[in-house]
Amino acid sequence: MQIYTFKCSSCGEEFEVEIYASLQVLEVKCPECGSDDLEVINIVNLCSPFG
Q1: 3-state secondary structure the chain
Q2: pTM of the entire structure?
Q3: Residue 50, in any domain of the structure
Q4: Per-residue pLDDT, 31
Q5: What is the structure's pLDDT at 46?
Q6: Strand arrangement of the beta sheet that strand 38-45 belongs to
Q7: Residue 31 lies inside a defined structural domain of this protein
Q8: Terminal-residue alpha carbon distance, the chain
Q9: Per-residue pLDDT tens digits for 6-49
Q10: CATH number at residue 31
Q11: Is residue 51 part of a domain?
Q12: What is the pLDDT of residue 1?
C-alpha cells in the first residue's frame, strides 16, 4: 500500500489517498472541487508485516 499526497491544480486543496493498486491513481479526483488535474507531492510506501 502507498499513501499519495496530492495537490489540486484547480483549487489548491492538498489531500492524501491510500492506493492499493497502481491504476487506482488514475481514478483520484479532488474531494473539494472534483477536478482530476492533480500534482503528486509525496508518496509513502507502507509494508505489511504479513507479506
Answers
A1: CEEEEEEECCCCCEEEEEECCHHHHHHCCCCCCCCCCEEEEEEEECCCCCC
A2: 0.85
A3: no
A4: 98
A5: 85
A6: 14-19, 2-8, 38-45
A7: yes
A8: 11
A9: 999 999 999 999 999 888 999 999 999 999 999 999 999 987 66
A10: 2.20.28.10
A11: no
A12: 86
Asked, for residue 9, whether it belongs to a domain, the answer is: yes
Residues 6+ apart with CB under 8 A from 2: 18, 19, 43, 44, 45, 46
Using the 8-state DSSP alphabet, how is residue 47 labeled? -
Residue 51 has pLDDT above 60, yes or no: no
Q: Are 9 and 39 in contact, with CB atoms under 8 Å apart?
A: yes
| Cβ atoms 25, 4 nearer than 8 A | yes
pLDDT (0 to 100) of residue 22: 83
Domain, as residue range, for 31 = 2-45
Q: Please count the structural domains in the chain.
A: 1
> Looking up cell 491510500, which residue turns up?
18
Distance CA 43, CA 28 (A): 14
